[in-house]
Amino acid sequence: MELHGSVSLLMLLLSAAWLPVHSKGYNYDCETRTGNYEGDIVLTERQEEIVISGRDPVVTDVDKWANNLVPYVIEAETLTPDHAKLIREAMTKIEDESTVRFVPRKQDRDYLVISGETSGCWSTLGRNRGLNRMNISPSECMLEGAIVHQLLHVLGFGHVTNQQDRDFYLDVNWDHVRPEHVKSLNLHEGRIVPNYGMPFDVESIMHFGPNHFSHNGLDTIVPKNENHIIGHRAEMSLKDIRKLNIMYPCGYC
């Protein structure tokens, strides 16, 4: 009886430790208001044409970062040293699980500039020639998991919520979706954003939030399994990590 009580207490403590990470009150509006592709992805003209055609992947091998290295610049004009520290910690989370490395830019032609404009959380997708951009609003999305989410976009990750097998796991309340964002919740047809053989991942950090694109504050995306929680900005799932290492196998070692 004593053992059973101890186990119950342990489960309660574990639940308490897990819940705050998922219920920080993160406002997903910072990822949706900009009008970018699926809310927080800035596409190039070439990528927009590919998305419209639906025939080819948006991110191919030539759009991945060479030698698994991402040269970056953190804008001192819009981000404080404390912000820069948190961004570097988010980079380390990815580095600890992969051979991807974020390195301060020297003379690199292709590089990432991270800014802290007052509104919005967004990024470009994959490695584009020359300047790539990412924005983390200090007042809205300066959260380690939100930064990891955007950095994975920079590496070429799309949103899991749009995978073709989504409807086996999630329901979309279309009546709650803002009309201008209906397309943002369409399934990815064809090969637009490959999932690299990974089955649908309800635990991914690359999901939309439950009320993403809502016009009334009510949930737009509901897991069929009520025990599943989507849209967290906590940490990469095991499948996220596996996909990352498939996309970026050992490149510099």
Strand order within the widest beta sheet:
1-5-6-4-2-3
Number of helices: 5
Q: Summarize the amount of helix as a percent range.
A: 25-40%
Arithmetic mean pLDDT: 87
Give me the CATH architecture, please: 3-Layer(aba) Sandwich
CATH topology assignment: Collagenase (Catalytic Domain)
Structural class: alpha/beta
Shape category:
globular
Highest CATH level, the class:
Alpha Beta
Tell me the number of structural domains.
1
Question: How big is the Rg?
Answer: 19 Å
Number of strands: 8
The H-and-E topology, N to C, reads as HEHEHEEEEHEEH
Low-confidence stretches: 1-23
Taking the sheet with the most strands, its summary is:
6 strands, mixed
First-last Cα distance: 54 Å
Fraction in beta strands: 5-15%
Q: Any idea what the CATH superfamily is called?
A: Collagenase (Catalytic Domain)
How does this structure look, described?
This protein is of the alpha/beta class and 253 residues long. The chain has one domain: Collagenase (Catalytic Domain) (3-Layer(aba) Sandwich). Helix content is 26%, strand content 13%. It has helices spanning 2-22, 45-53, 81-95, 144-155, 238-247; strands spanning 41-42, 69-74, 101-104, 111-115, 121-124, 131-136, 170-172, 221-223. 34% of the residues are buried.
